[in-house]
Amino acid sequence: MFRQKQITYALGGGGAYGFSHIGAIKYLESLSIYPSAICGTSIGALIGGLYAFGMKINEIEKMAKEIDIFKMIELLLRPGISKGGVIDSYKIKEFFYKYIGDIHINELNIPFVAIARDSRTGVEVDIYDAPLIDAIISSISVPTTFIPYYYNGRYLVDGGLSNNIPMDIARHFSKYVIGINVIPTLSDKNECIEKEKKMFVKSIKKERKKLIPLNFTYSKKNKQHSKIYYKKIIDFKYKDKQKEKYTLADSIANTLSIENQNQLNRIKIDKNNIVINIQGLEDYTSTGFNKASEIIKIGYEYVKDNHHLLTRFL
To answer: Can you tell me the distance from the alpha carbon of 170 to that of 37, in angstroms, rounded to the nearest whole number?
Structure first.
């Protein structure tokens, strides 16, 4: 009789990038790969927790696509940051309570661990013996965005800076581990920025003459000067454009990306485990929750295109 290998999922954090977990899990299911346990950080804890609870992946996908994130934020917004964030974690709890109630992690059919961080000490907190909803909310409470979630005597926040892809915790549950990283590397992001810059340059080429001084006279020497002048103008205009786009969310995302890469470099990989680094998310942002359909599809297609990496788990 066929018996599936015991496999634990380690689902990484990354804000809206994490919707790609849904697509990845959908494809894993098509190969009849199911988790015997799940460990998750931030949105990885949210999606993993709902899945461990018993929600079908199609139901989670439907929820992700239907939630109007802007209306949701408007409802959850709390003026000022005197309490450490602008979104009330307890209102988030009320929202998800209607889906999962107060079920305890010990009651789940699939063992589950959510990774959080003590906001006062910086210590990693692995939550495996608590109501599921408290574990999830603790893990998704992004610092400065969410008010730290008070649970069991601690003010807890997103565990991304401590253990964004909890492979080490997952190894306690099974020999085989599939980790999924959804945060693009800074090098991938920089490539995307370069492409964007080339498009920007192309879009203003028609205005080149307007950028050259009216009293400019063309000669071989001045032609070279015009190229330098033109390049400086483009750089200035592009940097100015980027400044307008750069937000606090971008700053937080870049910090997480750097730390995430550092953590990835420390993860030990062997024949029994793998970290799937979802590619193709560079054009999106960690706050692009209105792009759920596209990001889910990217997760599905990437794992499908790299299914050869999964043969050891079949």
So the answer is: 8
- Going by DSSP bridges, is the β-strand pair 112-118/154-158 parallel, antiparallel, or unpaired? antiparallel
Q: What amino acid positions are annotated as catalytic residues?
A: 42, 158
In 136-229, at which residue ranges do the beta strands (DSSP E only) sit?
149-151, 154-158, 176-181
For residue 300, give the nearest of 31, 44, 8, 10 by alpha carbon.
31
Closest CA to 168 of 160, 158, 177, 155: 177
pTM of the model: 0.81
Coil, strand or helix at 82: coil
Confidence label for 76 from pLDDT (cuts 50, 70 and 90): low
* E-strand stretches of the chain: 7-11, 37-41, 112-118, 124-127, 149-151, 154-158, 176-181, 273-277
Please report the pLDDT score of residue 1 as a whole number: 39
pLDDT at 161: 87
**Whole-number Å distance between alpha carbons of 16 and 48:** 14
Q: Is the pLDDT of residue 80 over 50?
A: no
Task: Quickly tell me which residue has 């098509």 as its tokens.
Answer: 30
Instruction: Please name the residues in contact with 124: beta carbons below 8 A apart, sequence gap of 6 or more.
Output: 115, 116, 117, 118, 159, 162, 163
Say yes or no to pLDDT of 198 above 70: no
**Residue that the structure tokens 């028609």 belong to:** 206
- Please give the single-letter amino acid code of residue 268: K
Cβ atoms within 10 Å of 154's Cβ, excluding its own: 18
